[in-house]
Please model this.
Amino acid sequence: MSNSNSLFLLLILTLTLLLPTALTLSQPKPIQALLKHLDSKRASPSVQEAAAKAVLKRLLPECYVPSFQFKIVPRDVCGGQSCFLISNYNSSSKNGPEIVIKGTTAVEIASGLYWYLKYWCGAHVSWDKTGGVQIASIPKPGSLPPVKDDGVMIQRPVPWNYYQNVVTSSYSYVWWDWERWEKEIDWMALHGVNLPLAFVGQEAIWQKVFMDFNISKDDLNDFFGGPAFLAWARMGNLHGWGGPLTQNWLDQQLALQKRILSRMLELGMTPVLPSFSGNIPAALKKISPSANITKLGNWNSVDAKCRWSCTYLLDPSDPLFVEIGEAFIRRQVEEYGDVTDIYNCDTFNENSPPTNDPTYISLLGASVYKAMSKGDKDAVWLMQGWLFSSDSAYWKPPQMKAVLHCFLNQVAKPSRWLIKSLSSLGQVEKYQQIKGYCDILFTVLTHLLWGIVNDFYCALQIFVNFRHLRLDVLSNALLQYEWNARTQVTMWFDNTGTIQSKLHDYANKFWSGLLEGYYLPRASTYFDHLLRSLREKENFKMEEWRKEWISFSNKWQARQELYPVAAEGDALAISKALYEKYFGKKDKKKNKYHFETSGRRVLRITQ
Model:
């Protein structure tokens, strides 16, 4: 792709799953050109075939491996699209291959494997907390069910299956090691994901970039958020909260990112890397006093004193904007190699721009993309579009037009444009408002992107992973990370002695230890104060109650007690007993269940 024919795409995704029945397989020429270019970055067929075979080995017992044959094929075999083909292996041997799966990438092969296991063998592969891997129904090797007739070909209804959003990294992934990441990437491949965000380790890259601009590691301690709050620091909502990050952690995350990218590439995926939105450390004001820097407003802090919020934004007109953005892209290419051309940048997620002047907004969009394209001449800007929905009062048609239309006027003449929205009807109507304002190729809810939203999930690893690292004395770093994990699911952000965080319980979970150790004592505090006010016939003492439960919460955030990681007792019997207790007959003499407890836990119920 030469500079004169560069393909500029702004891919806007909102967080809604679009069903493939609403899509068409036709692809505009710009998308065809982009796909061809991205294909040139993929691993060789032999590497991808080996990667798909490795997924099979991790999914099924070793004895099944000889039963499947995998092969990478060109798009021409699939009518010019991406696809997988499943057929029977023509042989009378009982010890050789039984099923042949071909695909245009290793992702297609892996998703073809899962298609076969699901629809021919009754198997199911999900996350651990939503069913896990269920493969007991698969017949033994040598007895696998044949596919009908000449087999089956499934074309990908859209070029990309997009996965994750920008905050999932802090809600779940930040606690994962390589073993857990490997399992997730296998899940992605089996479910056809080929466009995942790859955000791990970016703080290590930013550290190197900002140090080149004379910003010290100590300065960055007040810029990066803690592990549970990195996503919001990256978005410019907060700074320093939950930090500082240790150098060992930064280095470990960078090493982990390289393994993640390597596996994604082996499987034929296109990773999406981060880019620069203008969010900068406060220290840059002192280092570059002439730079045009704006201090943003308070973000959900209880007292609006800006200790943890009110971040700094580099003006898009300042030459440093493109310089820093370009440096970040180039540093990623230097660290990871030429692995992608697609970069994510979500400007003003849950922050409003300092002005609603369309000229400013247009300049910001132009500067974001100019920085990307100077670092990677074939850059594609992927935007999730959450900002348009979360702050709809600000993002009116003139402002939306400005951020989208800027490229046509300032960056890419002539250029082809595709604005994609995977969204609810209400959001589609919002995008339709700007259709008449933009002289661009505008298609909504048609081909190209099938978004898969990662519903924020995370098993008890958010607590348990720390426990695997526990020695006789926990280091300060581990104590800090545990505080991050506990704080995120309870108070979340800052508080005073009498005012709880505005975000308390925002990320609440029904995990082991939380109900018994946190929610029950907190609720008991409320009812104690309520009963006291009723007995004494006086008004409820709100401030005293808040002092007590806020103090309790802050202490709980700093604790390190262990919680069970496996269920105890007979869940079915307990459920039946609870149903009879609350919805059955009220005659206590006829209640045939007896509860055996330990502390507040019900261990088992007998009749």
